[in-house]
Amino acid sequence: MSPHLDTVRVERVWAEAGTVHMAARTRELTVACPECGRVSARVHSRYCRTLADVAVGGRPVLIGLSVRRLFCDSRDCGRRTFAEQVEGLTVRYQRRSPLLQHLVEMAGVLLADRGGARLLQILKVPLSRTSVLFHLMRLPLPSAAAPRVLGVDDFALYADVYGTLLVDADTRLPIELWAGRDAEQLAAWLRTHPGVEVVCRDGSLVYRQGITDGAPDAVQVSDRFHLWQGLSKRVGDVAAAHRGCLPSAVPEPELALPPSPAAPSDQADTPARRHAKNLFEAVHAVTDTGRSLNAAAHQLGLNWRTVRKYARAATWQECVRRTRPRRPTSLDPYLEYLRQRWEEGEHTATVLHQEIVAKGYRGHYQRVKTAIAPLRRGLPIDTPRERPPSPRQVARWITTAPSRRSLHAAEALRRLLEHCPELDRTHDLVRQFAAMLDARDAAPLADWLEQLTTARLPALASLANAIREDQPAVVQGITTPFNSGVNEGRITDLKLQKRIMAGRAGVPLLRHRVILMALLRRRHL
């Protein structure tokens, strides 16, 4: 109340039922008519307004304010009387002070329905979640001016339903959000907002067509992050196609004992290997005739994913389910000691357990008994082996800059590339593209695309075709500083807001929160 003492006089303050009450009265001052601006001091009547204000000392505050209704003496004004307003304290038709109303609106922007209602309950402003949303949706959105550099990207609303987010790349603020990602929506928005000079996007054909239709003079930039992401995915496909080479990245164990004649060999004829061989021959007998995967699956009575797996494999050995190597345990540092004591003639598991306990082992006796069981059958102790890398892990090694690879990754990748010429070729092509991005030089792009085509790797050949269709935008993405990094950051924030609202927010509410949240962080609200 203190900023308004010049216009308002406090007459009484008291507490009742946990609420602080204030009785106040406006002073007899001249007031300007809100329509014509002519000042007046001729009073028509008085009436009392009840205003809620921010809590004091944990107690809600109610202000009973007596205000005047005055005559407007201007003959040209359409008003005969008007009610006076106290700047910063009253707003027409508003039963909260501007400060409290701003608090309610910010609770809605920051926490939405239930979260905002809980926060306001703590602040002694009881409101339902529906009321919080009502006040949030009443907030006006800023007018969407056409930016110079526009970022366009899609995001998942839920399941297979997507939306589109537009971001001003200069101010880094979201502009618009709508459901769907079709070309006509984007083209219509660009037509109604002329002046866009540069548009950053991913490789989507839909957005490419929408930009071409709505802003044909705008420069399209295919974002280099999405280019690198697409290349990384194709590298993973190449690694998956050469899955049989991946175990070569794991070094051979140095202390491995020669296998016993009774030990099962990896090349032994087992039921799993026979099953894989029979399925491989049956699937290729059908698919090699030109029939589709679904038709082959229907004929053989198999799942189409199984048919796809065997149809893509070059040999049946690639389809054999491999047993996973044993994981390291706390007993591993003592395995050499157990082997040595066994060769010395100590074959009692209890004694061996007691000896390694004295050396610091804290595991159970049963684990020691299980570890020396192969020795009783004349087999070597099952020592832990490093697992072969997955195709995704190999793709990450290849796409990581050599200076940022760990020593283990660099050594494993060296062994793998020496064994697999296809992955070695893929690694060279990835490093060539990385050099183009680092130097922002697209001159070698045409030769690089030709190398992708002639590399005899289907995954890379399809990437070359996709880049050729969008080559002008790809060149812009390599050579210019424009990118979609701000889009990715805003979409990450958008997903956070969706999770805060448990994914139940509709597009209008999501648009309000995303745009107003960004403005609030810039302190524009």
Describe what you observe in this structure.
This protein has 525 residues and is an alpha/beta fold. 46% of the residues lie in helices and 16% in strands. The chain has helices at residues 98-122, 129-138, 183-192, 205-214, 224-241, 271-287, 293-300, 304-312, 335-343, 349-358, 365-371, 373-376, 391-399, 407-419, 421-439, 445-454, 458-469, 471-479, 485-500, 507-521, and strands spanning 8-16, 19-26, 31-32, 39-40, 43-56, 59-71, 81-83, 149-158, 161-168, 173-179, 198-201, 219-222. Strands 1, 2, 5, 6 and 7 form a 5-stranded mixed sheet that branches. Strands 10-9-8-11-12 form a 5-stranded mixed sheet, sandwiched between helices. It has a two-stranded antiparallel ribbon with strand order 3-4. α4 (205-214) links the parallel β11 and β12. α6 crosses α7 (293-300) and α7 crosses α8 (304-312). The protein is elongated. The relative contact order is 0.10.
Number of strands: 12
Largest sheet: 5 strands, mixed
End-to-end C-alpha gap: 23 Å
What is the multimeric organization of the chains shown? single chain
- Proportion of residues in extended strands: 15-25%
Low-pLDDT ranges? 255-267
Specify the structural class.
alpha/beta
Mean pLDDT: 88
Counted by DSSP, the helix tally is: 20
- Helix percent reads 40-55%
Cα-based radius of gyration, to the nearest Å: 36 Å
